[in-house]
Write a structure and sequence with these properties.
mainly alpha; 4 helices; 0% strand
Length: 102
Amino acid sequence: MWKSPNSLDSSTGTLNKLREMQSRGPFVYLRGHWAFLPAVINTAAGVDAISRNLVRMGQAFGLSDAAILRKIVLPGALPAILSGFRVTTDIAIILLVVAEMI
């Protein structure tokens, strides 16, 4: 017996959506992988750019490692971290458009 598309049960629609999501798995992986990499690189570069003298000064004042991270390293690296997130967002949007074209 023929059923109109509106009368199909919801499980069929759910299965089709799951199959579509599984076929898009590689695209999601590529977007995540290529978009995450610039954020990590910029974060590492920002932390590396912190002056060693500032860290030594914090140690001389008796700051713990967590306090040095929170009060010296994080504020000093924040511009590079945010720049990495901006680049990451741009790349993710570009990859989203490219994946939808494929």
